[in-house]
Specification:
- The structure is a single chain.
- With 372 residues, the chain is α+β, with helices and mostly antiparallel strands.
- It contains 11 helices and 14 strands.
- The protein has an 8-stranded mixed β-sheet with strand order 1-4-5-6-7-8-9-10, covered by helices on one side. Strands 11-2-3-12-13-14 form a 6-stranded antiparallel β-sheet, with helices on one face.
- α1 (15-25) runs parallel beside α5 (71-84) and α4 (62-69) packs across α5 (71-84).
């Protein structure tokens, strides 16, 4: 997508009202994306959408977890489906980007998802906290990137969330200067009765601070393993979270950047499939090579890490097969997630928090700036 055409959608009211507006405004795009999703499931996993949705409800208790811990999120999804004229069951399954990485595979097959490269730096002098993310997902979503604007449900704050039609959010920030994104870590233990990641995003975006965000992810059983990246005007944090364990990663020195890709660096709570044989915990080459690139740029950096510097690092393509900015992989292991859907840099000022975003790989996509 050309970033110039990145569309902003303003949703008013509570969860049900927002869902109805979302479904009505984006009805055509939701139908198109669900068809593209079916093609992607068949191409990547050899699994038609109908069969995936059947497995989703038969093999998980995600709907129950949503009903208990995030009922307003569930109500919003149902309202989107009704307004858009699509099956609620299909749209609910569509939300679960992180869970699809392991749920769509045949039983007993090891899944390793490699989505996203992240950089975070706490407040330093006059420069506010910064978070950068390359959001890597399947290329079929390209051209459908949107920004959703809405009010917080629990305060007078405002939310700005990156998404695609039909989905609640993929990352985001709010007017308090709090932002959140993640790295998939499917080597960590998952939980078919845990709370799905998309719903945790919506709960997190009510937070006023990192402290509040950490409380949210600490009290909820997670459906999928991942590295949370959170920041506010005072600090940033990375937290590797599995179904049963949360481990903070990175230096406590706010002057030093933290960076991550898609293999656990601190959390030992591996999924059973990765505990069975020596070496099975290793991820694919992409995560190690992208991490090595970030390490090369950041570990001994003496100059200030500015927004422009983060843009340059996240646009880098040192390894043409496994670059940080991914324009479509040339390897089988990249077929599901070999595309940088967006490059986001969250500038977490207490007064004027901003999102700098390239709607696509930033080595070929321009940035635009939006205020939360």
């Amino acid at each position: 997508m050309d970033s110039v055409n990145l569309r902003e959608i303003v949703l008013e009211g509570g969860p049900v009202e927002r869902g109805r507006q979302h479904g009505e405004i984006l009805r055509r795009e939701i139908h198109e994306l669900l068809e593209r999703w079916d093609e992607s499931l068949r191409r990547v996993y050899g699994l038609p959408r109908q069969r995936y949705v059947e497995r989703f409800f038969a093999e998980t208790k995600f709907e129950d977890a949503l009903g208990r811990h995030a009922p307003t999120v569930l109500a919003e999804v149902r309202a989107i489906a009704e307004s858009a004229g699509v099956a609620y069951e299909t749209l609910l399954a569509f939300q679960h980007v992180n869970e699809e990485f392991w749920l769509a595979l045949p039983p007993r097959q090891v899944s390793v998802a490699e989505a996203c490269s992240t950089i975070a730096l706490g407040k330093s002098g006059t420069q506010p906290s910064l978070i950068g993310q390359n959001l890597d997902l399947d290329q079929y979503l390209d051209g459908y990137q949107i920004l959703l604007r809405q009010r917080c449900d629990l305060s007078d704050g405002r939310i700005l969330a990156l998404s695609v039609p039909g989905m609640i959010s993929l990352n985001g920030m709010n007017s308090f200067g709090f932002a959140v994104c993640d790295n998939a870590l499917t080597q960590l233990r998952a939980d078919v009765a845990g709370l799905p990641i998309f719903a945790l995003y919506r709960l997190l975006l009510e937070s006023r601070s990192v402290t509040e965000g950490l409380a949210v992810v600490s009290r909820q059983r997670h459906a999928s393993g991942l590295n949370w990246v959170m920041g506010d005007p005072k600090q940033v944090v990375m937290l590797e979270r599995s179904a049963g364990c949360a481990v903070r990663y990175g230096p406590r020195d706010a002057a030093k950047p933290i960076y991550h890709t898609n293999h656990p660096l601190a959390n030992p709570d591996l999924a059973p499939a990765f505990r069975k044989k020596p070496g099975s915990e290793r991820a694919m080459r992409s995560t190690y090579l992208r991490f090595a690139a970030l390490h090369e740029y950041l570990s001994s950096r003496e100059e200030a890490l500015t927004i422009d510097a983060i843009k340059a690092i996240l646009a880098s393509r040192d390894d043409l097969d496994y670059p940080v900015s991914r324009g479509g992989g040339r390897n089988d292991e990249d077929q599901a997630i070999g595309f940088t859907l967006a490059c986001c840099i969250f500038e977490l000022s207490a007064t004027t928090p901003k999102l700098h975003i390239a709607a696509g790989p930033s080595h070929v996509s321009a940035f635009r700036t939006f205020h939360a």
